[in-house]
Write a structure and sequence with these properties.
Helix content is 92%, strand content 0%. By secondary structure, the protein is mainly α. Helix 1 runs antiparallel to helix 2.
Length: 98
């Protein structure tokens, strides 16, 4: 039983490490860019990775309330990306009319 717990801990650490690497890449892409669309997608990816990390952390710690926090974070992240996309679309339409 102890070896199974150790295997799960190693799996959780490797998963969170992979998510951290993905977060670093997405953060780089959100700053570097080349287009605003790439930046919006990178922000969406950051939100997804953070919510997945919270869910994995909840599984690792055995805390069910972290799943609720993860779902709330997903909703807030979705709203933020939807607002950013709406602002970008309105800005793009304004540039096309000029």
């Amino acid at each position: 039983m102890e070896s199974l717990n150790l295997a799960y801990r190693i799996l959780f650490v490797l998963t969170l490490s992979g998510f951290a690497a993905g977060l670093a890449i997405a953060l780089f892409r959100s700053v570097r860019g080349p287009e605003i669309c790439d930046r919006i997608l990178a922000i969406n990816m950051i939100g997804t990775l953070v919510s997945a990390s919270i869910a994995v952390l909840g599984a690792a710690l055995g805390e069910a309330w972290l799943y609720d926090i993860s779902m709330i974070y997903v909703l807030i992240s979705f709203l933020a990306v939807a607002i950013l996309a709406t602002v970008y679309i309105h800005k793009k339409k304004g540039e096309d009319e000029k």
